[in-house]
Amino acid sequence: MSKESELTNEQTISQNGDRPAEPAVTDEAQSLHDQLAQAQAQAAEYLDSWRRATADLSNARKRMQREAEEYRATAAVRVIEKLLPISDDVRRAFDNLPPEQADSDWVNGFRMIQHKLDQLLESEGVTVLPTAGQRFDPALHYAVTHEDADGYAEGEIIGEVARGFALGERVLRPSMVRVAR
User: What is the Cα–Cα distance from 36 to 138, expressed in whole angstroms?
Assistant: First the structure.
């Protein structure tokens, strides 16, 4: 080894206490290190913002889809509720039909219309609320009268004045009933 190398090693050992000195970090390397750390922090921030924006977009799509489904369901319910009185009127007309006209072609044509209307309501999931032999339930029935009636227990339905309808679990219109007391 040359004298200069020995001298450099001796200076290094004496400054660091028996170990070789680490190369000094230059200002340029420190600057690059700081820039890298700043770029990594900014990339992490952008990635977080992108993830949040993606989640917000996904949530907005789901919300819009849910709102559209609710709107369609509400619109269907409104139309069905408007059809129910028509169905009632047709049924009442048949109940009050003079016997001599019961088998006319004209009346049979209206029976077919009534049948189509009933099929339409059924295809949309509308069901008739049962009343015969049932106990009065204020969630399903509307009591028109409370009457004394032989052969009926208190709170039992005597008769139906107007049919009630449900769409799934939702009561569209409660049955109008006469109730025993």
Answer: 72
Burial (Cβ within 10 Å: 0-12, 13-18, ≥19) of residue 169: exposed
Cα gap 42→63, rounded to integer Å:
31
Q: Is there a contact between 143 and 122 (Cβ–Cβ < 8 Å)? A: no
Helix locations, 17-141, DSSP H: 27-95, 105-123
Please say if the pLDDT value at position 19 is more than 80: no
Domain 127-181 in this protein, CATH class = mainly beta
Q: H or E stretch including 159?
A: strand 157-162
Looking at per-residue pLDDT, the higher value among 20 and 60 belongs to: 60
Kindly report the pTM of this predicted structure.
0.62
Q: Of 156, 106, 109, give the one whose Cα is nearest residue 133.
A: 156
Q: Which of 146, 181, 139 is nearest to 161 (CA)?
A: 146
